[in-house]
Design goal:
The protein is built from seven helices and ten strands. By secondary structure, it is of the alpha+beta class.
Length: 217
Amino acid sequence: MKQLLTLDALKREAHTFACVESAHHEPALYGVTDGKAVGTYFEHKFRAYLRERYDFEEGNSASGADFPQLEVDMKVTSIRQPQSSCPYRSARQKIYGLGYSLLVFIYEKTDDLSSATGNLNILRAIFVGREQTADFQTTTGLRRILENGGNKDDVMAFIEERRLPVDEVEAAALADEILANPPEIGYLTISNALQWRLQYSRVIEKAGSVSGVERLV
């Protein structure tokens, strides 16, 4: 009987797999420069590794998370430009987080000409708790306003300045929610787009030194 995959087990296996993969030289990756192809290779291999050891529900694009039972999505990105995209649901995500946690693998890829193989050196594996997946500048700005005694007008003005994709009615409702329930500080940089663009430089910098952002490797 396989064990049920838990959050602690996922974190532990992420560390182990990252170390194993960093030592592996893969012919199929030789000469590959497409980050999406590299990410797909790594994600499929990690899931196959987990399937040998654990029972877990596998996510899909509809569920929005690779591990829906654990509410965790996996991201794989190059250290050269540590970023990825994710589905846009609402402007609230920049303030209150994506609605799920992130397991982020950051790699450096090199090719070995003599063996015609590619290597993914996993420089970091980082777990970002769901409460910390909001936008850093948005959440710190809102908290400053609230700490300075800001009111609904101040919050709505800030929402407009940040160009959050909301209309006036939505902005007013968001302002009421923010006043009643101040957001946690997030550590992502989230750019407005049809799909959110998530950037991880601050996550890499803060991993292991702030609550909710764990450095696994």
